[in-house]
Amino acid sequence: MGETVHLSRSLAGEIISRAAQSDQEVCGLLLGCAGHVTQLVVCRNVHPTPATHFELDPAALFAALRAARAGGPAVIGHYHSHPSGQATPSATDADAAAADGSIWIIVAGTDITAWKAVRDGAVHGRFDPLALAIAR
After folding, report:
1. Angle at 94 between CA 125 and CA 37, to 5 degrees
2. Residue 50's Cα: distance from chain center in Å?
3. pLDDT of residue 2
4. In sequence order, which residues have a C-beta less than 8 Å from that of residue 29 and are 6 or more positions away?
5. In 10 A of CB 88, how many CB atoms?
6. Contact between 95 and 43 (Cβ < 8 Å)
7. 16-48 confidence digits (pLDDT tens)
8. CA neighbor of 118 nearest in space, from 104, 135, 98, 134
9. Euclidean distance between CA atoms 104 and 90, whole angstroms
């Protein structure tokens, strides 16, 4: 784990809390720069089977990308939950992931992990683990 994702305790708590409030996968965008998450954008999960899959609401993604182009924080990745699984990428996640270097934060219960979507990754051929530094 050479790279580190930095996340405040309050943002980590927000992700964990949102996940705990739903038996479906929750999701959202990570905003910031250079591995430092500074904001979350909560998104609707628009996947037809949200109990086991997620798909970010495209309108929220496009709005965040437009805001970034206008000088706002960059979209550096996203988060989602695994309500009945582990905080590791699933084969389904790997099938849906582009090898674009984006950060994936996954939460299951109180476990929270970070991953980078890459070509030929260590997990399912698509993800490499990232260290997650949670600070005040």
Report:
1. 105
2. 15
3. 66
4. 40, 41, 43, 56, 60, 61, 64, 75, 77, 78, 79
5. 16
6. no
7. 999 999 999 999 999 999 899 999 999 999 999
8. 98
9. 12
pLDDT in the model for residue 49: 95
For the chain, the first-to-last Cα distance in angstroms comes to: 22
Q: What dihedral do alpha carbons 89, 131, 31, 8 form, nearest 10°?
A: 120
CA distance 129 to 74: 21
Does residue 61 sit in helix, strand or coil?
helix
Judge whether 73 and 19 are in contact, CB under 8 Å. Answer: no
Per the confidence metrics, is the pTM higher than 0.90? yes
pLDDT band at 136; cut points 50, 70, 90: confident
For 80-123, give the DSSP string: EE-TTS-SS--HHHHHH--SS--EEEEEETTEEEEEEEEEEETB
